[in-house]
Write a structure and sequence with these properties.
Elements: H1 6-10, H2 14-21, H3 27-32, E1 48-51, E2 58-63, E3 74-80, E4 86-93, H4 121-129, H5 144-157, E5 162-165, H6 170-178, E6 182-185, H7 187-198, H8 202-205, H9 222-230, E7 242-246
Parallel strand pairs: 4-5
Antiparallel strand pairs: 1-2, 2-3, 3-4, 5-7, 6-7
Length: about 260
Amino acid sequence: MSASTIGGINKLSTHEKREIYRRIIPGEMLERFKLTPYLTDIQGRSLMKLKASPGSTSVEIYLYHKYGFQDPIFYGHLTDTMNGQVHILLYILNDPTAPRFDVDVMPDGQPTKFGTSQRNIAAEQGALASGLTPGQIRSGLSIFSAATKAFENFITDLGHDMYFAEPLYYHNAIIFERYGFKYQTGKKLMTRIQDEFTQDTEVSRSLDAKSIFRHPDTKESIRLRSWAIHDGILGEPFSNVTMYKEVGKSAELNTAKGCRW
């Protein structure tokens, strides 16, 4: 490959950038939605949108199953670390056939940044009741294993043997653990969270069902813990957690032992 960083790829021609970044898309996604490798529809319109300006060290990748659809089936926001390694800031897989919950926008249309800047409580309540996790606007595609393999092939093609990720929510960190990630920062927080929910603490005692986000079953559910944390049960936001993965290796971490999804 002619470039080894996001910044380097972004300096290339539009065609070259598109050819490189489309390697991140798992083949299973193309098969499910009957997309061609060129990522265009039958009218020749592009289904992949890139925000990859020359001079920028980050990229946003959007892939749609249908031209003009509201939400992408794939969204990735990647950047370079100071050492030139790839860092995943956000990675989303959406099922376009699933019901949509407007957790990303307020009723007046203002963005919520997935509930991190402000919250659409009614939409979040609906998402929770439908089995979704914080930040999800639709259910996922259940192809994370294939997506991880495709992404690691992309990383290898860049000449790297590791990459970083920023879990936006508690459940994201647990999912990354299950796929072999280690903690650069935040492992103490994850251990503390396990203790807060499993021991006799102020957090566990506040799971009194007075709020839909704080049901007693939360103690033993990763998904429900994530909602409670998103709701502020820790007294602080879930932040300052950075993880990394060595290609082809698994760290075998589990900071939520005995906890179901």
